[in-house]
Structure formats: C-alpha cells, structure tokens
C-alpha cells in the first residue's frame, strides 16, 4: 500500500516538474513571470485530446501538443514580449492577457464541458506493486519526468546553447559583453517553455479531463513549485516537485482533507527557513538586465 502511495507521489512529482520546468527556465534566462504558460498548457491539453480522438496514437498526439505550445509561445515572444523586456508590469499584463485569450479561445471553439481523454492499449492497463494495482500511465509519467530532467541538465551543461543560456542566467550583462546574443536565446528558451507547458497539458488530460479552465486550475500550483525550488533553478524545481508531490500523496493518503493544503504549507515553511527557495540564489545575486 505504502509503495503505491510513494509511486503516486513520484508520478505527481514528475507531472509537477514538467509543468513547472518551463516557467522556471523562462524566468531564469528572461526574468519574465510567464502567466501565459497556463494558456500554452490548455492549448497542449486540447491538441493532445484532438490527436488521440483522431486515432493518432499517444506519441504523435503528445508531440503535437508540445509543438503547439512551442509555436504559440514563439509567436507571443516575437510579437508581444520582445518590445517589453525591462518592463515588468507590461510583461505581467501581457502574459496574463495571453493566458485569458487562449482560455477563452478554446472555450469558444470546443465549449465549456469536460471532455474525457481515454488511454488505450498498454497505457490503459495496470501493474501490480505490493499486491495493489498501479496505472501504467503513471509509470510512463515518471519516466517522462526523469527523461526531461536529464535532457535539460545535459543540454544546459554540455551543449554550446546550454552554456550560453547558463551565462545569460548568471548575468545577462556580462553575457552580452562576452559576445553572447541574448535576444535569440530568449526566443529559444521561451519556445521551449511553451513546449514543456504543452506537454504538461497533454499529460494532464488522462487524469483530470479536458476543459478550458485547466490552465487556471494548475497555475497556482506551478508558481508554488517554482517558488519553493527557487526562481530560475531547474534542479530546484525538481527538488520542489519531489517534496510537494510526495507530501501531497502521503498527506492525501492519511488525511485526505489536507491533500491540497499541504502544498501551501510546504511553500510557507520553505520561505520562512530559506526565502530564496531550496536551490535558488540569495537575493541580489541575479542580474536580469534587459538589452
């Protein structure tokens, strides 16, 4: 029984990491609190539902969801955000507006009703752990979360693009003085954040259904994970996802009424003990100069 609870917590942690990694990455390189990620999440949710409903299979449908989220994000960055770097208020209002527009767009096209997204084949099956059934789809979720973390960690550490991104995170001013073109990095990173949000939307459907306000329902949780982990820190986002996912699963098993409250309690506790988050930088060390 406890093994199943822990596996459920790990699957929640994997989903929370995929949901929040793009937001953390975008803030780390761009200094943008990207509320629009909730809109890309909803776009990916409906893209995957559309693909699965037309018999595409899970892999093409989920890739399509990620691409939709990434393309929308790239269009928004180029057309709306690029003139607003350095204008924090403008960024917040713009990303909030994009989120609301995308939510209303899917509500207008598909309607407000909840659509069910069914898994077929192996992913609809269960396996036995400790004498209890456990959904195969949740195991896939854990594997996808681990894979995305490894890909991000390796790309940021060992590729030329990753080195430039890390330089921009540490100090955009010094990166520009060293000849790094930060503007294209912003577009790439913002599009990657949109792809991760779209993929998270695709993974959300089988658990909770497909509906227009799903992005708003997950937005607070996304920010809780990012704040607990430390703004802009991918390892911190992973650590926060594990802490929150496992805490939610364990508390939900023993005291179901506190399952959602525990997320806020974890955030309050971490901020009291370590205001910069689990693996975030202390205040004053981060340079978010906008050229």
Short description:
The chain has a single domain (2-273), classed as ABC transporter involved in vitamin B12 uptake, BtuC, CATH 1.10.3470. The protein has 11 helices and 2 strands.
Provide an overview of this structure.
The chain is an all-alpha fold and 291 residues long. It has one domain (2-273): ABC transporter involved in vitamin B12 uptake, BtuC, CATH 1.10.3470. Helices cover 72% and strands 3% of the residues. It is built from eleven helices and two strands, in the order ααααββααααααα. The protein has a two-stranded antiparallel ribbon. Helix 1 runs antiparallel to helix 10 and helix 2 (37-53) runs parallel beside helix 4. It starts with a helix and ends in an 18-residue tail after the last helix.
Task: Give a topology summary.
Blueprint: H1 2-30, H2 37-53, H3 58-81, H4 88-110, E1 126-129, E2 132-135, H5 136-158, H6 160-170, H7 172-177, H8 182-208, H9 214-229, H10 234-254, H11 261-273
Antiparallel strand pairs: 1-2
Write a concise keyword list for the protein shown above.
291 residues; mainly alpha; ABC transporter involved in vitamin B12 uptake, BtuC; two-stranded antiparallel sheet; 2 strands; 72% helix; globular; disordered C terminus
